[in-house]
Structures are given as C-alpha cells and as structure tokens.
Specification:
The protein is of the alpha/beta class. The chain has one domain (42-278): Alpha-Beta Barrel (TIM Barrel), CATH 3.20.20. The chain has helices at residues 64-70, 99-112, 129-140, 155-158, 190-207, 233-249, 270-278, and strands at residues 42-45, 74-82, 85-90, 93-98, 118-124, 146-147, 162-166, 174-178, 213-217, 262-265. Helix 1 (64-70) runs parallel beside helix 2, helix 5 (190-207) packs across helix 6 (233-249) and helix 6 runs parallel beside helix 7. The radius of gyration is 18 Å and the shape is globular.
C-alpha cells in the first residue's frame, strides 16, 4: 500500500480495480475457526449492485467480482420477483442483473478462495414479497455451500459458503440487527452524519457476539430532504469514507480491538476496506 493519507484510497468511484501484488484477498483465512461470525468485523457494501439509474441511485462503482476481491464479505441485494426470475433492483431501477447471476459470481469467488465466506442479505421489493423465500430456495436447491440456518455459525463452519441473513419478510439464514433506521440514512449535513455513525457503531459494539448479524451503514443520501438535496450517495461517501477510516484507526492500539459487526459502505476504497477488516486482531 502507498504510505500517506493523501494518496490512500478510502473512496473509490472508478470501475477498474488495481490491487498490489501483495494484497491479501483471502483475509478470512486469518480468522480462527472457533470464532463466531457475530464476533467478526466485516466490510460490506450498501446497495451492492446499484450501478445504474443516475447520481441519486448509484452507490457502487466496482463490479461484484471486484468487490469480493477487494475484501467485501457482506452484500446487500434488493430483488423484484417477476415470473420465475428475481431481478436485482435499486428502488424502481433495474440493475441489469438477476439474483441467479449474483449467486453464480459469489460461488465462483468462493470456489477459488475456500477460506472465505460471504454474507448475503436479500430484500424483496414491491409486491410478490411472499414468493421470494421459495424462489430463493429453488435457486439454491439444497446447495451444501449455502447457509440457511438461523443459528449463529463459527467461522470454521461457513468457510466456502454463502450465508443468508434474514430480515422482515425474508426468513432464510441468520437474523439481522440493523443499528440504524431509514432516518439515519437521510443526510442534510455530513458532519451530523459522522456523529450518527459514531452512535450506531457504539450500538454495534454492544450487540456484537450475540445471535444476530449486527449491521451498521455509513452510507447516506440527501434525496428527500431540502438542505441536502444535492448530497448524492457519492458525495456523501466522498466525505464520510476518509473520516470513517480515521475514526476506526483510533482503535488499532486497543487490545483487544472492538468488534463492530458488518460495516456497509458506498463507494469504498481498498484502504478503507483494509482498515475495517484489520480490526480483526485479537
């Protein structure tokens, strides 16, 4: 990695991923087999497939394959059922992919890096929500490399596997606890957003190690507000991501370092991803 914050990459809006030769793609290999998944700090993306729809809808730049290679291990996928297909959406915007294609991409990654595991939150959109569970069951078809139990596994139990997390009408996998609300996602002032994230991460630390996957979003948008009407997800991430990196690094001297669960970001750079996963030092 390049030394010096001015040249480090905490925010990324480029579609091409450049990793140093020394980059440790299978970082979960360093997590002890006995450690519960709920005691691991995991870098994730919010609206992981939101590449299309204009500035107010786009939340990511890197492809799903490159997000995984960069270290992302939690994916947030919104789906809309139509016929026998689950289409990936962000709001009303189709994201040019299906859940089957998402699963194929994750499976391909895990077949290459068996030490890793990927958490997947599937959120049904609009009508037809009650059919999504069964459609996902049909897609995975008793795949031994997919975790659908509600019990919290250890790292050793889920290596090489996709782990579904459940929330609301989607009931496959481990229960999810979101530290925030929709209100916390609304941004009228970035400094206020920073303070909100501090409170949410404090809640996450208290909840880590339980029966739920704990999730905190650093993402935000000014859409739907007056004072923040020009704060797109990209503009928020451009300011929040470097701040978040600095905030998390203050815990590096701690022994042990705190657990924050899943931290889901928009437009993360590889150095921010590295900071999040490096919190896993005991």
């Amino acid at each position: 990695m390049v030394v010096g914050d001015a040249t480090r990459e905490f925010f990324n809006d480029k579609e091409t991923l450049h990793l140093p030769e020394s980059y440790n793609i299978p970082w979960m290999a360093g997590i002890q087999d006995f450690r519960p998944l709920s005691l691991i700090t995991i870098p994730g993306t919010h609206e992981s497939m939101a590449f299309h729809g204009g500035p107010m809808a786009e939340c990511q730049a890197l492809s799903l394959k490159d997000q995984l290679r960069a270290g992302i291990r939690y994916l947030d996928i919104k789906v809309f059922p139509l016929g026998d297909t689950l289409y990936v959406m962000h709001g009303i915007m189709y994201q040019h992919s299906t859940l089957r294609e998402v699963l194929d991409t994750v499976r391909a990654f895990l077949s290459q890096y068996r030490s890793e595991a990927v958490l997947l939150q599937v959120t049904p959109q609009f009508f037809g929500k009650n059919t999504v569970n069964q459609m996902v069951q049909n897609l995975i078809n008793n795949d031994e490399y997919v975790w659908v139990s509600s019990g919290m596994p250890t790292m050793g139990e889920v290596r090489g596997k996709i782990i579904f997390v459940q929330k609301n009408t989607f009931t496959l996998g481990i229960p999810l606890m979101d530290t925030g609300t929709k209100i916390d996602n609304k941004v009228t002032d970035v400094k206020t957003k920073d303070n909100v994230i501090i409170k949410l991460l404090s809640k996450a630390t208290e909840a880590c190690g339980g029966h739920n996957v704990v999730l905190t979003h650093s993402s935000g948008t000014g859409l739907g507000t007056f004072w923040g009407m020009f704060l797109t997800p990209k503009r928020v991430a451009e300011k929040v991501n470097p701040w978040l990196n600095q905030y998390l690094r203050q815990f590096f001297p701690n022994d042990p370092r705190p657990c924050f669960g899943v931290i889901a970001t928009d437009f993360p750079g590889v150095d921010l991803i590295q900071t999040i996963l490096t919190l896993n030092t005991w």
